[in-house]
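User: Just a sanity check before I run the rest of the batch. Below are the structure tokens for the first item. I only need the designed sequence back.
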């Protein structure tokens, strides 16, 4: 099966960031008409994620209607429906979706807080928007969120005793 790619409408910006954090190619758009969104999803072979029932109907087979208003629950819906697992976590820019590139500490000097520069050794940069990323507490928090979702999706395990 091919790795799904997503097109996310303006109602699901936080979900787009979560999917990017999981390593999924996720395009987020704000100001397109329904017909252009559907056309873009089909042209780029992306799954259109939306909370808009009418838009999901127009897109039909290339869409997934997301029901929840809660970001964590939205992510759970998408993961469950498409049976997703993390692809390459923390390899995409959370802001613009580009693949991140490794960068040395010397090249980030002066562009990040001094305590970060002294505390971390691994840095990545977005080649497009030039944001710098490092493995801070935000990654730990997102990992816990993903682990919780996967734990909830795991088949129930039964324990027994030998008597």
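Assistant: Here's the designed sequence for the first item:
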């Amino acid at each position: 099966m091919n790795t799904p790619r997503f097109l996310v409408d303006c109602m699901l910006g936080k979900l787009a960031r979560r999917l990017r954090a999981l390593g999924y190619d996720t395009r987020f758009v704000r100001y397109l008409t329904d017909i252009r969104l559907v056309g873009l999803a089909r042209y780029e072979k992306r799954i259109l994620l939306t909370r808009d029932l009418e838009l999901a109907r127009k897109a039909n087979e290339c869409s997934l209607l997301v029901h929840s208003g809660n970001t964590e629950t939205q992510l759970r819906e998408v993961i469950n429906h498409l049976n997703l697992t993390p692809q390459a976590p923390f390899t995409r820019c959370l802001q613009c979706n580009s693949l991140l590139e490794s960068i040395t500490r010397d090249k980030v000097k002066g562009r990040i807080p001094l305590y970060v520069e002294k505390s971390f050794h691994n840095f990545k940069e977005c080649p497009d928007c030039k944001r710098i990323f490092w493995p801070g507490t935000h990654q730990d928090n997102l990992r816990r969120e993903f682990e919780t979702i996967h734990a909830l999706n795991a088949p129930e395990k039964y324990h027994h005793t030998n008597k």
